[in-house]
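=== How it folds ===
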Amino acid sequence: MIFIMWNCQGLGSDLTVRALHGLIRRNRPTAVFLMETKMRSSRLEGLRKRLGFCKGFDVAPVGRAGGLSLWWDTSVEVEILSSLPNVICSQFQVMNTGAKAYFTWVYGTPYREDKNAFWHWMENSLNSTTIPWFCGGDFNEYLWSHEKRGGIVASHNRPRFLHNFMTKMSLFELGFNGPSFTWRGRARSGDLIQERIDCALANATWKSI
């Protein structure tokens, strides 16, 4: 299975839609998880079908912010177990083998004042499992100090939300190819800040599917 996870920061522009179409055409993914769609389900449905996915599930944005969309093809059967503005929990079953796995699609809150509550929910509402489990997306958290460059130097005493979650749930990073940083922005001083805040996690039995 191949997955695309993308914080698209809004699907309202033709340029973004063309970029998404190119990603889908090149990679032929089983599922696509989009974050910050900033788009209602009625418009997303038309776009999803135009890009070749007849099935999907959407979480509406709050005002003009956020919004999640999960698309999948006919090679899998998907059950949506629960959803929140920042998380979609699902179960996938591969049609030709019957193999099942849990998928937790995450867009971690970017707001500092909401992080304690969000990660408390993640640690106390999700459960470690022996069934293959994939957990991925834009966590808006980096694991290690070297995954942040520029801006205020990371404190050794900073909350380790993502690390603590991975430890409690027995999840590990699947690794990556490509750029070391997945987000960049500017500090008020104008300095460039780069962080690795997108990642893919899995449990030990994930390799069995």
